[in-house]
């Protein structure tokens, strides 16, 4: 009789592998994808959690600000809300002007709206910078060029804000006394702190060769990007036009809220007060300037001749319109952009 063996015969020349079985490549990919999906889901929910935390911490300010809305004239408030919406368009124009490549317009605008929410949830500038860096990377820009574009945007925005303030001070020289924005005796320590920071930077660049090479390489890339952008009139116009329009629209929103409450201050002086206050608190590392901006704005509006009670109401409602009302939809937009892998 012929004996029949179960299973196929082994192929000639092939030996069975010894040791434990190795995991399949597909299973490793599925595991990595599951971890990435979990992280992405956490990032989608995190902005909403941060909004809740910030709102709870500032619930008294929110309650008082919403209570003040009932005493204001609504047409001016609607106009202030419209000016606030235009600030995101101005930011998108400036971001587009900082790079040579054409960025997708709708996603760029949505990113600026989401970046505004991120900026109010993280220390000043970090949230918006992180969102926009990620957006430019997803759009295909190398990290070095994305960082250079971000630096050019920040430089243009700072120059636009300070330049607009200087132009208004030249046109209205008696609009503001800067001594009222700083506590007595604070100028010396502030100047000392700035000088100490610059000295630390110089020593670090001199002592650490690797850091010096990195900084020099970044500056070379940034200057090359700046030259390329300014070689195109459309990009230069978008960059500097948006950089000037952004603080002008923010100041216009404050002026419109002031008109809604009948604040007895000329509109140009209110604009000077806003620009001076935001420049004064630019180095304060608080999320979106929450707390510091309100205090500086009240002081600035009183310094240009406003009554303290009315100035406080104006500032509270201004921050409700520009910060708190867009915060929740901005956080939702941020989560949606993360989920859709736009950022």
Give the structure's gist in a few sentences.
The protein has 343 residues and is an all-alpha fold. The protein has twelve helices and no strands.
3D architecture notes:
This protein has 343 residues and is mostly helical. The protein is built from twelve helices and no strands. The protein is globular.
Secondary structure elements and pairings:
Layout: H1 25-57, H2 59-68, H3 74-97, H4 105-121, H5 126-138, H6 143-171, H7 187-207, H8 209-230, H9 233-260, H10 267-280, H11 292-303, H12 308-339
Helix pairs in contact: 1-12, 2-12, 3-4, 3-9, 4-5, 4-12, 5-6, 6-8, 6-9, 6-10, 7-8, 9-10, 9-12, 10-11, 11-12
Average pLDDT works out at: 80
Q: Roughly how much helix do the residues carry, as a percent range? A: over 70%
* Sheet/helix structural class: mainly alpha
Number of H- or I-type helical stretches: 12
Number of separate strands: 0
Give the ordered list of helices and strands: HHHHHHHHHHHH
Span of the ends, CA to CA: 72 Å
Strand content: under 5%
The largest pleated sheet is described as: none
Enumerate the spans where pLDDT stays under 50 for 5 or more consecutive residues.
none
Query: What does the overall shape look like?
Result: globular
Please state the CA-atom Rg, rounded to the nearest Å: 27 Å
């Amino acid at each position: 009789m012929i004996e029949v063996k179960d299973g196929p015969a082994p192929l000639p020349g092939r030996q069975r592998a010894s040791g434990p079985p190795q995991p399949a490549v597909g299973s490793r990919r599925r595991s990595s994808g599951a971890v990435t999906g979990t992280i992405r889901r956490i990032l989608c929910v995190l902005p909403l959690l941060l909004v809740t935390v910030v709102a709870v911490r500032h619930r008294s300010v929110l309650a008082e600000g919403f209570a003040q809305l009932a005493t204001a004239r609504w047409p001016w408030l609607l106009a202030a809300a419209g000016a606030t919406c235009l600030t995101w368009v101005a930011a998108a124009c400036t971001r587009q002007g900082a790079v040579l490549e054409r960025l997708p317009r709708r996603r760029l605008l949505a990113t600026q709206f989401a970046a505004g929410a991120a900026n109010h949830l993280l220390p000043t500038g970090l949230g918006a910078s992180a969102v926009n860096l990620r957006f430019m990377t997803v759009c295909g820009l190398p990290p070095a060029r994305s960082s250079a574009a971000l630096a050019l945007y920040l430089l243009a925005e700072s120059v636009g804000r300070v330049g607009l303030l200087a132009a208004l001070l030249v046109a209205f020289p008696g609009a503001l006394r800067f001594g009222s924005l700083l506590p007595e005796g604070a100028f010396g320590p502030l100047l000392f702190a700035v000088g100490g920071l610059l000295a630390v930077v110089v020593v670090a660049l001199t002592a650490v060769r690797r850091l010096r090479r990195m900084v020099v390489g970044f500056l070379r890339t940034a200057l090359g990007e700046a030259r390329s952008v300014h070689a195109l009139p459309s990009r230069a116009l978008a960059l500097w036009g948006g950089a000037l329009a952004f603080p002008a629209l923010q100041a216009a929103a404050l002026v419109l809220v002031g008109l809604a409450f009948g604040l007895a201050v000329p509109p140009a002086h209110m604009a000077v007060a806003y620009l001076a206050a935001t420049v004064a608190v630019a180095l304060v590392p608080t999320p979106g300037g929450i707390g510091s901006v309100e205090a500086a704005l009240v002081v600035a509006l009183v310094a240009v001749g406003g009554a303290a009670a009315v100035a406080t109401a104006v500032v509270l409602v201004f921050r409700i319109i520009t910060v708190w009302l867009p915060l929740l939809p901005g956080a939702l937009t941020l989560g949606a952009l993360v989920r859709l892998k736009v950022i």
